[in-house]
């Protein structure tokens, strides 16, 4: 991509300007940034001479040049392989099979390589709590200055840059009340510029009147609804619990509004941080035409969640998909109770939400063979051309082998949803009660999956990875459940229930991102997100921010009193490990033992229940997922210790400490969370080799603060220096 001219970039924000103004000395700035600066200092950031806001004038020539540049970049960044087309007539197909006492209905969308226009209203929480800095921080409690609102703005910028002129966007903020920043606007170059300028004006203050924002957003979509030809969605972004409520509560108020207006827009909710009413957010999504709910614990999840949410919307083939069962009343079962359902004496309706190109929707309904003839089945759905299209489904009672295999996969999917939801519900109602019975059901399901998959069925294998990974971690530890499990589990199980991919991380949901169109959109959305400049922190820290992940400044380490497993099955204290020891689980030989001196003979470390004592930012593997220890506890603990330890191995690059797999130096892993631009590369091994040579080639290396080379902007360690080279600069640029 062509880099913008330096004159296009604000010297305060270091971002491309939207509304440039010029001072009497000829210096140009982003209007909002310089006005904020002058309120605090009253002087020019360039010359330090006195400067008043009244001295500033619009720089129209520069704005025209920037807009031309932005237009050229937008034309390159647009999803050019995904040309927007006029909606063409199409139909879904559906088939039904009767297998082992179940009716299995599978709805198939058409294939396509072009997407249709969309209308989106983003409803953004700007209450005072949105000023709270992101949860991610390093061992010294240094924060990076990114507030929750900064992260929300970055997410919406991704949406803006992904849209084309036929798409429309609206923005509503809410605090004490709702404010409409702009109505549905076509995302032409001018529309995008206006949207980005309005986004920059969002500021945190006041209470959390979520209902007023939700109501205002739905009204915008209703009034601006096109006759045909667009997918519509409301994105609700918030960080907490509403403290202003409608008289009868949020859900009754939303139900009343839906009855009155019959809105068809999908409501997708996004919860930032850990202080959420996640139950309310999911209820809103359920009532919002079976929308999605996503949990965003910190900045590292913004990209993965919003890239997939936008991809799902842009790849939508049909909305408001429902399965109608006409006949005797269908009683709730373990396989159907978690869907939004409407029941009358002779009709049961299951709401399945939207369907994307290339991805099926599946429902299992337990019905006895004797009663099967009493029922009729149909699918009702909306297309971009017309609402309420219908398909009648004939049930096949002699399924083929592939049909049976597909049935088993869907049965495991819904059993996972039911088991996890049952435990979650019990924990919410009685957090201090023993859930051993419910957990035993999960263990039984785990064993059934293992016996069936045998490592050959990829979908069931990845369902098992979800079940034995973060699901069990969230449910078997009370602190973890209270902090993040109560918010994460509804997000994961809703994605499995409605068969949509909501992130790049959980193995099971990756199977729902099917089809050429979905994959192409997602790849290009991901490129747009990663290419955008990192947001300017609203609370200055001086650190440079990489939006893909926040890394701490120092390498992760273990407490010397922990137990590490050797390849021969025995254990050693961490402090007793020697070069040449062979370590489980991969038989890696220790090349270097790295001992880092602790200042004041203490260190802030995370203490995990099984005895592992580890620095907050040393990646560990739980199940199939890499996680940071700091995400598992409320705060690190001050621990007495003179030294902390790490290792460099010749292969494998993980060790098992107190029964938890932990990464070691120079590992080369590229996955999210574990990757690191220095400690995960060969460069750290090369530096250790030089230090070892200076320290007499024993393989035991002592590291102190004075040997660490840090980037002066971010504080991140970028190298290790030889002690005899201390006359060199102590900080690099």
TrEMBL record:
Residue ranges annotated for the VWFA domain, each copy included: 119-310
Biological-process GO terms, alphabetical: protein ubiquitination
Coiled coil: none
UniProt cross-references to Pfam families, sorted A to Z: U-box, Vint, VWA, Vwaint
Domain U-box: 3-76
SMART domains the record matches: Ubox, VWA
SUPFAM superfamilies referenced in this protein's UniProt entry, alphabetically: Hedgehog/intein (Hint) domain, RING/U-box, vWA-like
Segments traversing the membrane: none
GO molecular function: ubiquitin-protein transferase activity
InterPro entries tied to this protein: CLCR (IPR051266), Hint_dom_sf (IPR036844), Ubox_domain (IPR003613), Vint_dom (IPR039510), Vwaint_dom (IPR032838), VWF_A (IPR002035), vWFA_dom_sf (IPR036465), Znf_RING/FYVE/PHD (IPR013083)
Protein name: U-box domain-containing protein
Species name: Rotaria socialis
Taxonomic lineage of the native organism: Eukaryota, Metazoa, Spiralia, Gnathifera, Rotifera
